[in-house]
Amino acid sequence: MTSEDAPHIPYSLPRLSIEEMRQKMDTMYAHLSERRSVRTFSPEPIPLDVLERAIQIAGTAPSGAHKQPWSFCIVTDPELRARIRVAVEEEELRSYTERMSDRWLQDLSPLATDHVKPFIEEAPALIVVFRRVYETDVESGDRHPNYYVQESCGIAVGLLLAALHEVGIAALTHTPSPMNFLGTLLGRPENERAFLNIPVGWPANGTTVPHLSRKRLDEICTHYPKGDK
């Protein structure tokens, strides 16, 4: 590919002082540290244009060869969400009773979760994320691969969660496995695979979350050469 095929444009970022950088990072960390997974939602509708803007923010994520291999589906229809819940709970029951190891169930116990998922119907909306494993040429019907699809979608969802938290919308990253039924229920094309089901909304009155702690910086960050900061 030549530069004529992919022209470049000027790019720059604001050059902040070191103190400004530290202050912004401290503010952002304090804010995002308050983000939690929520399983009890108010049924009050949330503005769809806000969800759409959050999805646009997710769409700014980097992706393999800039293929942007993701699709986001906003599901607010009560009947459809009821059908999704039935399918989810069938798969989740199998997981909790047949697929999960004793250690897995033990690790989940502090979260007090089980196969019953009322939040799918209680939340005012679901954002179902699909990864696009390939694209199909409209004229020829030929398939063209996408690259680093799993990684690209993961980065996009991270931006989506941050954007939702920025405006006070709670979310839950829900991964019933297997998730093929989501593509079937939503009538998605053959090139898409379900990646995440994300109930979103405001927390219900009286919502509580597990009292958890996050790993310290020295547990997740290593310097090379060691000792450098």
Question: What does the secondary structure layout of this molecule look like, with pairings?
Answer:
Layout: H1 18-32, H2 48-58, E1 70-75, H3 78-99, H4 102-108, H5 119-122, E2 125-132, E3 134-136, E4 143-145, H6 149-166, E5 170-171, H7 180-185, E6 192-201, H8 217-220
Antiparallel strand pairs: 1-2, 2-6, 3-4, 5-6
Helix pairs in contact: 2-6
Can you walk me through this structure?
The chain has 229 residues and is α+β, with helices and mostly antiparallel strands. The chain has a domain at 39-77 and 122-203: NADH Oxidase (3-Layer(aba) Sandwich), CATH 3.40.109.10. The protein has 8 helices and 6 strands; from the N terminus they run ααβαααβββαβαβα. Strands 1-2-6-5 form a 4-stranded antiparallel β-sheet. It has a two-stranded antiparallel ribbon with strand order 3-4. β3 (134-136) and β4 form a beta hairpin. The model has no long low-confidence stretch (mean pLDDT 92).
Name its key features.
6 strands; alpha+beta; 8 helices; NADH Oxidase; two-stranded antiparallel ribbon; 229 residues; globular
Question: Briefly, what is this?
Answer:
With 229 residues, the chain is α+β, with helices and mostly antiparallel strands. The chain contains eight helices and six strands; from the N terminus they run ααβαααβββαβαβα.
**Terminus-to-terminus distance:** 40 Å
Q: Which structural class best describes the helix and strand composition?
A: alpha+beta
Mean pLDDT: 92
Order of H and E elements: HHEHHHEEEHEHEH
Uncertain regions spanning at least 5 consecutive residues: none
Total DSSP helices: 8
- Helical content band: 25-40%
Query: What is the CATH class designation of the domain at 39-77 and 122-203?
Result: Alpha Beta
* CATH fold type of the domain at 39-77 and 122-203: NADH Oxidase
